[in-house]
Amino acid sequence: MARKLIAANWKMNGSLGNNAALAQRIVDGAASLACEVLLCVPYPYLGQVGGLLAGSRVALGAQDLSEHDAGAYTGEVSAAMLKDVGCSHVVVGHSERRKYHGESDALVLAKVHRAQAAALVPIVCVGESREQREAGDTERVVLGQIEAVFGGLDDAAARRLVLAYEPVWAIGTGLAATPEMAQAVHASIRGALVARLGDEAGAVAILYGGSVNADNAAALFAMPDIDGALVGGASLDAEAFISICVAGSGR
Ligand code: PEP
Fold this sequence. Notes:
The protein is α/β, with parallel strands linked by helices and about 250 residues long. The protein has helices spanning about 15-30, 45-55, 80-85, 95-100, 105-115, 130-135, 140-150, 155-160, 180-195, 215-220, 240-250; strands at about 5-10, 35-40, 60, 90, 120-125, 160-165, 205-210, 230. Strands 1-2-3-4-5-6-7-8 form an 8-stranded parallel barrel, surrounded by 6 helices. The chain starts with a strand and ends with a helix.
């Protein structure tokens, strides 16, 4: 069975002093664990945190990237720059980007293309709003967001990404999906992957995100189609994040 991937999304949090202490504690705590660990940190701190992670088994990621290649795009950060400073992964289409920056499915696909062209692994976020869930629309919305990306990728590219199911109502609210609710959506996603990739569907990890914490992680990870987690708030607390990683290591 593939190792679980536990990815931290620090969002717009951090400072030089806090990052150094947090990253060092995570490096130490993750040293002997049997899961993949990734820290997705704000742009200005990629160099700092990348330096702290060097030689460790914790990988570096970013939270967004430009859909453009290079040039006159003030304020943007390219895939090549992220690769240059040591990133292996980049979050794409987080619901906060979709909501506050109007990111469309088409833009998400453009960013996936850029990431993959620079040999970064995109972590593509999908998820329904509370209203959509209450209207019974969860599967249609989530599979539609995935199809919007997969429709623009060949099979080789479709195998080279990570999906994160993040119900919008669970992000930052303390109200995680129950393991059964999450598993039901993950199973639908897996079904879509099998339809697209056949025997190779297992190559695509499906993370759960939305109020994962030290107390609920193990039950979520016990579900057959949950391959790891994207962790926001709890990733800012070294002890909580390491506990989630321990759960992801099957301990
Ligand atoms: C996220 O932002 O991707 C996330 C899952 O946040 P939280 O864990 O705080 O709900």
